[in-house]
Amino acid sequence: MNILDQIISIKRKEVYNKKIVSPIKKLESSSFFQEKTFSLVKNINQSHTGIIAEFKCKSPSKGIINNTIFVEKVVKDYELSGVSGISILTDEHFFSGKNEDLKKSRSIVSIPILRKDFIIDEYQIIESKSIGADIILLIAGILSKNQIFNFYQLSKSIGLEVLIEIHNEFEIDKITDNFDIIGINNRNLQTFIVDYNNCFKLSSKIPNDYVKIAESGINNVNHILELKKQGFKGFLIGEYFMKEKDPGKTCKNLIDSLEGKEKI
């Protein structure tokens, strides 16, 4: 059983237990559920840099990345740096994430928040809205085309945007019309190995009318500029920021450098 299979197996058990402890009616009574969401699509289209900064303390491939910082400080610093949005890992078992991290973030920032998790059930979409998310991640590799379509429809009905993430050419066939954002991930979710060329290989196969996001292994300005030439508008960056003592400062330095190079 590979890492992804393990994650999905545990996720199914988690969702089953959550449905008992916090049924959908309880989720819908959350104060966040009625709040208007922020648009990541709009922010990226209006941004010169398109950086989506991630809060991630641990990963299956790297182990502990940073466990000495507080989510409140990091996300506020990210916002002040001028990011287009913030990504919060909420998977606990493999990434040390918590729903509480997203709730806390929603209370202190006024920019879009992506809930980064392994969504396999409609329950998790309702849950995402109830904890303050503005956009959810749907991973094409773990969902059928029909599931993706249904999950997208449910998300839109409650005001959430959707980032559909692909990893290879076969998954492109699962993309249907009207998706908000298409993310191409350089990381193989079976092995968690990063192929830095994956975004370049797949970018031309995604129509330019989608907002395209590059994910994983992005750690320098020149790389971002090359990706921009391929039509990418957004760049999801986590580990590069989080491995530093001050993720917000590292994020600001990257954005300042990127803006400086684009003016040349």
**Uncertain runs:** none
The helix content is 40-55%
Tell me the quaternary state.
Answer: single chain
Biggest sheet layout: 8 strands, parallel, barrel
Lateral arrangement of strands in the main beta sheet: 1-4-5-6-7-8-9-10
State the order of secondary-structure elements, H for helix, E for strand: HHHEEEHEHHEHEHEEHEHEHH
**Straight-line N-to-C gap:** 50 Å
Question: What is the averaged pLDDT score?
Answer: 94
- What's the alpha carbon Rg, rounded to whole Å? 17 Å
- How many strand segments? 10
Q: Number of helix segments?
A: 12
Derived structural class? alpha/beta
**What proportion of the residues form beta strands (DSSP E)?**
15-25%
Shape: globular
Characterise the protein shown here:
It is a single chain. The chain is an alpha/beta fold. 43% of the residues lie in helices and 17% in strands. The protein contains twelve helices and ten strands. It has helices at 3-21, 24-28, 40-46, 71-81, 92-95, 99-108, 122-130, 145-157, 198-203, 221-229, 239-242, 247-263; strands spanning 51-55, 58-59, 63-64, 85-89, 113-116, 135-139, 161-166, 181-185, 211-215, 232-237. The strands form two sheets. The protein has an eight-stranded parallel β-barrel with strand order 1-4-5-6-7-8-9-10, surrounded by five helices. Strands 2-3 form a two-stranded antiparallel sheet. Helix 8 links the parallel strand 6 (135-139) and strand 7 (161-166).
